[in-house]
């Protein structure tokens, strides 16, 4: 027996959580938004032009989902960039 149900639209997600367009993957995973193009060409290495600022969310390669891969990959890059650690 169903005692409660809720329908959440992209508009609800945008208003409640602030995710643009209600997209939980922070951008569609389309041919122009995968691999070295995520989030934009030249930024797929998790580093940004701002020193010490890294991308690690769903907008980073390989994209959203419940894999944790963007965070894991970004952590590996951060460890590479930390001074004093063996490479």
Give an overview in words:
With 87 residues, the chain is mostly helical. It has one domain (10-81). It is 24% helix and 0% strand. It is built from two helices and no strands. It is elongated.
Number of helices: 2
Distance between the termini: 57 Å
Structural class: mainly alpha
Shape: elongated
Low-confidence stretches: none
- H/E order of the elements? HH
Q: C-alpha Rg, in Å?
A: 17 Å
Compute the number of strand runs.
0
Strand content: under 5%
How many structural domains can be distinguished in the coordinates? Answer: 1
The main β sheet shows up as: none
The mean pLDDT is: 84
Binned, the helix content reads 10-25%
List keywords for this structure.
87 residues, 2 helices, single chain, mainly alpha
Entry summary:
The protein is mostly helical. It has 2 helices and no strands.
